[in-house]
Amino acid sequence: MTNHTVVSEFILLGIPNTKGQETILFFGFLAFYLCTLLGNLLILSAILGDSLLHTPMYFFLCNLSMVDLGLASISTPKLLVDLWAKSRTISLGGCMSQVFFYQFLGCTEELLCTVMAFDRYVAICHPLRYLIIMNWRVCAILAAGTWISSSFHATILTSLTFTLPYCGPNVIDFYFCDIFPVVKLACTGTYIIETVTFTNTGVVAMTCFFLILVSYVCIVYSILKMNSAEGRRKAASTCTSHLTVVTLFFGPCALVYMQPRQSKVLVTAVQLFGYVATPVLNPVIYTLRNKEVKGALRKLRGSQTTAH
Question: pTM here?
Fold first, then answer.
């Protein structure tokens, strides 16, 4: 297919209705970004440094932290540059990278949430066979499968987006490059790419959500059958953090991709929450409700104090 693209760069209009507030937004987003880096790096360090946390659940949590680091780093540094230097241009290659990595990491997080739900299902519904079912070979295959499948998903959508001809204008009415704002600028019909995006993204999201729902129906049924009140409390506690993360991630995705014709103010607010606030909240959610992680963080702090 001949590549008809003649646009070599795009201009990002940024966050709507924020003119004159660039300095406040810059420091606000900088604080969120630094907290994201610190929180997720601490989670990774604590899990990797404590042998008691070398279990399937924390292995998948490490993968989730890496995804959150990636999601926060795709557009936030560019947004900070735009707010501080007021340089809103992005190269064609940079725009392609943003589209690819948002689709790649977003799909990876959906699949990881599903795998983590399956892990909780096995741990609570089949506790005696947990270590046999969730052995390290199975965990490695599941983790690799999420990353590889997501790369195919992102490659297909990014290729379809940027094989469209872009002849100008080159102004993207958004603060980063996503599929729907970009394809609006194409010089040809976008029915195919919009249909494929709806189908691909929708099928993946709905399948993941359905599997998570089935897992938790089985988990709730098993919890209700437990005789021990302490056992029920502990089982419910291990699932609460994961359910909160699932809600925070799937909620914004449903609002943005199932109804892309919403007002840009609402879509921008939802996207900012999903890709700026959620990566900060995930480490907090897993830390506040998890004694093992808090214990590992205390050990990490103690070892650093001793070293100094």
Answer: 0.87
